[in-house]
């Protein structure tokens, strides 16, 4: 005898990453038991974020403009390559990085049927030739797919005379970049090594 | 360099029960990375649930009508008293209960300054006199406040000739005796029944 509108809301919360039925139910009740203003602000925040936040045309970072502030202001001679836009936010905690980023929107994963053409490698090559990039820092996750993707890109870039480095494995194997702390990230950046 | 609109969305997700910053961030990214349709449906579900779901005027259950389907169709001679509307959904999993409910919207808690007048006890008394109720099942939580509230209500109802029962307390089905606390075990022992 659960009301249909509650079920609909629960279903939406369940679509969030890692949320099961019980948790979604708790979230839904918290909305229903909260104020009408809160529900409206919440609802508006979802629509606004989705409507106004897009991807930077240059690097793929989240932004509400055509070109993100990082691409506008920073050194284009160094590109840090990440898997997802959210990884940029993690990397940005390292205050002394002054280069730009490139989001691949995925990693090479033969098991999941994702090859080099399914992620933004062509766009990376284009930027490298256009901007006279000197160093590409591979900051994909320290896992099998992240490593494979870094290797693949290094192999392509080497003949072009571009230095390709990889975040040092100071970040624990099998972990997710998104959850790494600043110190670990800073050390990993500092001890980055060339892929040969 | 986190965008303001993302921060606003993260803040909203953080307002949900048990959600910290990292989790809220993951939820927010999932919205931004998802489709525009999904964001709209999600947003609408929040507003709709809040706007249209209220409390049943009779029992306090969540409903989008004046009187909920349970109150409309079921036996008013038995009332199951719960703390919160969500408890009704738990109780409804017991398929063979055919009575109605009464939501107290809280429990008596002197430590938190909540007395009998702060929860819906008066409304319960009114329903009992109006509907000729024969049994009141106290299904408040098996904790100090839930027990105290059950005791208090039982004391009031006894003189009115209403049978007041309490959900049996004991070791939970499928649980492990090794991990049961002393209070639970003591109650289970006290309420032991002959095997026939």
Question: Please, could you describe this protein's structure?
Answer:
Two copies of one chain form a homodimer. Chain A is α/β, with parallel strands linked by helices. Chain A has helices at 4-14, 21-33, 36-52, 69-73, 85-91, 121-131, 144-157, 182-190; strands at residues 54-55, 62-63, 75-82, 99-103, 135-138, 163-166, 193-194. Chain A has a five-stranded mixed beta sheet with strand order 4-3-5-6-7. A two-stranded antiparallel sheet of chain A has the order 1-2. The longest helix of chain A is centred in the first third of the chain and has 17 residues, at 36-52. The model of chain A has no long low-confidence stretch (mean pLDDT 88).
Features:
homodimer; 196 residues; alpha/beta; five-stranded mixed sheet; 44% helix; 14% strand; elongated
